[in-house]
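Justification of computing resources. Each target in the renewal requires a structure prediction run like the one illustrated here; the chain below, 249 residues long, is used simply to show the kind of job we budget for.
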Amino acid sequence: MGKLHEVLAVEGEVKTTATAILAETLTTLAKKHDHFEGQTRKYAPSVDGGETFPDENKEMVTTVKDKLEYATKHLVRDLDVKYQKEAANTHAKADLEINGKVLVKDVPATFLLTLEQKLKEIKQAYLAIPTLEPGEHWIKDTQNKNTYVADVKYSHRTNKVLKPVVLYPHTDKHPAQIDKIMVDERVGTWATTKYSGKLAPIEKADFLERIDQLIGAVKKARCRANEVEAPSLQVGQKLFDFIHSGSVE
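Resulting structure tokens:
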């Protein structure tokens, strides 16, 4: 970003955008599950020349991972701007470590405090992630990015038709008695394939576990950063010297 004033000049706008996008993402993940669902239905008549129907398609609006990728760009920008500002404002720093490895080096204590809160907010969006419905056998769709596909399910289409039925068979004394009854006759089959842009429960659990790891690591780093020695600076007297006499030494 350059100078601190350049960071401050864009901080407000970046924060406003990131906050709005995070709120919209949370709403979509929590309340608009239909955005992540699609399906196709194809009809095949049982006999040559049977009645046909056009394919029925419901396109997905997006996938969970695509939605997260879109939001992530703005959230990363927001965090980066906060980090740059805090790094220019403090000397209290600590490495952010995960499993003994440094993820980010020399993180300012003030940013660690901000980051802890921001990760908690981000976690709410991940908690709202819809997962694949049980009762279906879902596999990764090799044709569509970030999509699962379920096994094809078949259902039959029937028509009501009149069919003759023998009430009493023919005998030497009486002719056969025949009537007609209404029966359901299979005329075709629907093949339904469901698609989903949701996540498997284990994927959601992994995301949440890693967020919790980060929050824990941030707390530990913040404690280490706050152990830094505070310099013995005197600023109050100099300020009042200037106010009272205009003296700048």
